[in-house]
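Entry 14. Ran structure prediction on the chain below.
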Amino acid sequence: MDEKIKALEELLRTRAFREGAYYPFTLCDGTEGYFELMLFDVGSWALCAYAGEEAVQQYLCTAVNESATDAERLEAVHSMDSLLLSVSGEEVSLTRYEPRRIPRDMNKQEQSRMEEILSAALSAPKAAKLPGKRKRTYPAGECQNELTARKMKTVERNGQKWLAHIFLHVGAIEPEEGGEPFFPYMLMLLEEKSGLMLTAGISSTPENYNEGFLTMLADAIAEHGKPKAIISVNERSRDYFKPLCASLGIEFEKRSSSPTLRKAMEDYLRLFGEQEETEPADESGPAELPEAEQTEDEAGWNEIDSILLRLVSDPTALPQLSTELLLNLLTDMENGDMDSSLVDVIREELRKR
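Output, structure tokens:
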């Protein structure tokens, strides 16, 4: 493979490839795909390959544009299904990216595939147009428990509009039943006007989050009342909440963006973007890409207490936080699991109650 890498490096100097272009390849087993070449500094470049129709479609569905938020870019990285060859001087890394998994070194079979792709690149194929993106559907929200559905339907309306956002959490967790760590999906519920965080939590499985997120919604409705409407801005959230709202008698709104949600996501990334970055389990993967922490998943669900720290420091929001949540935050701080600078603030609020 080393000789092919050097040969391709020489070919790159002739400008035989265009950045931003995609080139087709066919493996010996008949698998078709596309690769792209990315040029950085002198002697630094990368080849990223998407092998198979599903991998190509995964890329088409998660690719972001220049206006994408940091959270959307992180989700795109952790949703890749690709093989990445990166070269920096004499250093070569071969990394396998799988959706919602921590990047790892390629195994022998994947290295063999990359060698075939290098051979295809050396034949200097003509740039090709990527296939059309298929319409993608995501899991729909469904309340199968009639008693739970009846309770939510009969709760008094509060006249509020809630923002409901499902996205990929930046930290990896260990599966309850064992196996490889994965990046879970997270649900964030916000009151639109005030930006108050009603609840936030992560799924216990890579994809099937219906039951857990439904429980979170039911708890939020029981505590705060039934909203007039639920608003979603991305396709995953829309597919989940639109049918659920119809069954519960809640209006549903779809929007392209929300300043309130953007602010909440910026706060989320400030809290988690650096705190949850550690070396991947196998210490592989390009250093320039976001890394993720492996955390425990207790009983399948954890309340993401840290995301509410900004509310604790807000005198107008602090009284609205539940006693149970404040006690959880205080415990985490006293155990050294969180920043303890607000311990006295929480203790004083609890003393008043």
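The CA atoms of residues 93 and 286 lie 7 Å apart. Will compare against last week's run tomorrow.
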